[in-house]
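ligand=S-adenosylmethionine
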Amino acid sequence: MRASPDREPGAMARPGAGRARYLLLLAQENLEFRLPEIKSLVSLCGGRLSSQQELRLNSPFWILSLPSEDIARRLMQRTVCAKSIFELWGHGKSTDELYSSLKNYPIENMAPYLQSDLTYKIKVHAFNKTLTQEEKIQRIDSLEFLPFEGKVNLKKPDNIFWLLEDYGMDPNNIPEHPIDLYFGRWIANGQRDLIESYSVKKRHFIGNTSMDACLAFIMANHGRVKPNDVVFDPFVGTGGLLIASAHFGAYVFGTDIDYSTVHGLGKASRKNQKWRGPDENIRANLRQYGLEKHYLDAFVSDASRPIWRKGTQFDAIITDPPYGIREATRRTGSQKEMAKMTEKGTENHISITSNYHLSDILFDLLKFAAEYLVIGGRLVYWLPIYKPEYTEEIIPRHPCLKLISNCEQTLSSHTSRYLITMEKVKEFEDEDHDVHILESQYLPYKSHNSFRDKYFSGVTKRIAKEEKDSQK
Ligand SMILES: C[S@@+](CC[C@H](N)C(=O)[O-])C[C@H]1O[C@@H](n2cnc3c(N)ncnc32)[C@H](O)[C@@H]1O
């Protein structure tokens, strides 16, 4: 049994200054999102990531060099991509290499954790192979050369040490011997439990496009959300993204054009339920997780017409704009304005909605972020793309915003969405208002508008192919 994360075995200061080597054990999902998450979190904790070796980005094992154990612990209090972190005592490509690396590890670094008054336990973990209990015990016995002075305690040890073996990534070609072996002192676990405890399946108020809990936490981490920040979602829907930021201590606010969603009215999204219940709304979602005091409010408002006073500042904007697949993309306007667009004259000023093109949504979102984020604040949002057309050039830019990362999540054989993270690096000035007119490289990529058509053309083709295949 592993010690619970709130116990801190071996929390005493480790002798020896400078950067120590840590082993990160990562979950094998959302692979592209992991490095930006870890980098964002390390920088949020005041550190800078420098890897000890070329990271094998798809591997579950990364050796990192971090400034302190405190930063390693704080990283684990936030990450949903990593499972555990260890102070690395030894590493090798074979058992002999591991043992000689362990023998070279400074004894003064080990000694504080091996004393006679401290109990310990060794765990064996293999990736891409199942070891028998006998094999595990045999491996533990082989480590008897380590100068442990304390007693073994399997239930509540003061320190836990892990032997980790990597058998590569190919389940159809598992080598006889591990390709990498690691030994280290367990420091802390990550926040993978949040994925289950915040699961949308058990959430009070959901919609067709409620954000998956793990991705919502990843977005808040890419956005470097921290306690007491003010975080805004201009396309708030059921508030899935507010929940993750509030969990990390931010005060959260949202807007949505849809009156029913903001007020928790209308048809339910759950199977076997026709209408939303009396307390199905964003506030109740936050209450469900004990986060109500972090909820500022949600308004009915059109993101194409920001309601904010000049000078308002958000620490982060984290959002999932509509791209017209499972929800409508629309904006408000008077009949007069709409008529102007279609060149049909009318004197009527009744507010109606028209289609809100994706390239306009993106352009407005970047301009809004450039104007209303604090310097250093981050914009995190999803960009849908048609795979054959994707290059980094199609990511919308703004001179006040620096692109930090772009991570792909595949939606279908021909479509993906990219999680885009940008950071405000320059104050918004008057000339940034019409930047798209002045500087052609910042022109929104018009092809974003046809995403919906391409999505459905692919779906139609796929259905036709499936039907054809089933007739064979
Ligand atoms: C993908 S959903 C957001 C889902 C949300 N992240 C959640 O967890 O429920 C996009 C939302 O944008 C809203 N929307 C569409 N056009 C809008 C506009 N012009 N201004 C503000 N919200 C808009 C839709 O009503 C929808 O709720």
